């Protein structure tokens, strides 16, 4: 399903939610309290600004007695997303965020990947996938990157463990191109990036990716990921702990200037390797 068609479907979801909520005689705040989100969230669902997670859609059905209507519609839209079902809500929220802070312990973040790097990552996890599957996965990842090219782009801060620089993904030439791409974005001031070096030793969130997102008119969220699953968290106490963990990563990482020098040095190492093979 193309992005425009998906957006139309979410707008239908929102319109139906508003119609059925009003038919039940509930305000946005009342419905929000019953399904454990804010009234502002309900308003954003109704305007198709924000997409509900599946468990929220299920609670809406229970509250409005809609016989699974919103759960079924939500499942259909998630299934037709080009992203993994657990990541689809995160990809939608990225477009609304005013600030994104991300930590990756082993790979270059998706928002910074080149097509060749994204293809190598996809094939590593799906060695028997069809060309169509791989092409769609790469297209979806490149589509996500557009938020960093918009005039209203979110403030983007990334922390990478040095592992992400040293493990070759694709050929040496492709890895050099990937690191050059990140370096170029840093020099163009499209993001703030720090590298957590091997010398830092043990660190907060050891081996676990973390993403924090802030919004203009909604509470911040945290996202963590495991094997074929993800957790999108908006409990204020949990998000606050995640923010504290990210602060610890910041202070342990190299400065942006030193990080850029390390990126450029690693890229040069890959270039030398490529020239000798």
Automatic annotation (TrEMBL):
Species, as recorded: Streptomyces solicathayae
Cross-referenced PROSITE patterns: HTH_CROC1
Protein name per UniProt: Helix-turn-helix transcriptional regulator
Phylogenetic lineage: Bacteria, Bacillati, Actinomycetota, Actinomycetes, Kitasatosporales
A Pfam family reported for this protein in Swiss-Prot or TrEMBL: HTH_31
Residue ranges occupied by any HTH cro/C1-type domain in the UniProt entry: 17-69
Domain of life: Bacteria
InterPro entries to which the protein is assigned, alphabetical: Cro/C1-type_HTH, DUF5753, Lambda_DNA-bd_dom_sf
């Amino acid at each position: 399903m193309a992005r425009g068609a998906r957006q139309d479907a979410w707008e239908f979801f929102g319109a139906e939610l508003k119609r059925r909520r009003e038919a039940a005689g509930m305000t946005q705040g009342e419905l929000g309290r019953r399904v454990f989100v804010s009234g502002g969230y309900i308003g954003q669902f109704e305007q198709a600004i924000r997409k509900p997670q599946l468990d929220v859609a299920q609670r809406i059905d229970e509250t409005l007695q809609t016989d699974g209507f919103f759960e079924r519609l939500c499942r259909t839209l998630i299934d037709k997303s080009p992203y993994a079902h657990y990541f689809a809500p995160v990809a939608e929220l990225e477009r609304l965020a005013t600030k994104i802070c991300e930590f990756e312990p082993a790979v270059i973040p998706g928002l910074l990947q080149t097509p060749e790097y994204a293809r190598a990552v996809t094939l590593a996890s799906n060695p028997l996938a069809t060309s169509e599957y791989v092409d769609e996965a790469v297209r979806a990842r490149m589509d996500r990157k557009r938020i960093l090219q918009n005039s209203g782009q979110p403030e983007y801060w990334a922390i990478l463990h040095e592992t992400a620089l040293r493990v070759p993904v694709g050929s040496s030439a492709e890895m050099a191109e990937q690191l050059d791409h990140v370096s170029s974005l840093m020099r163009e001031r499209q993001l703030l990036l720090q590298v957590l070096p091997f010398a830092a030793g043990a660190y907060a969130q050891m081996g676990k990716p973390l993403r924090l997102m802030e919004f203009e008119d909604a509470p911040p969220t945290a996202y963590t990921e495991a094997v074929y699953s993800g957790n999108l968290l908006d409990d204020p106490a949990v998000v606050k702990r995640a923010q504290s963990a990210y602060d610890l990563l910041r202070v342990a990482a190299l400065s942006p200037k030193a990080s850029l020098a390390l990126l450029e040095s690693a890229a040069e190492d890959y270039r030398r390797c490529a020239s000798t093979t």
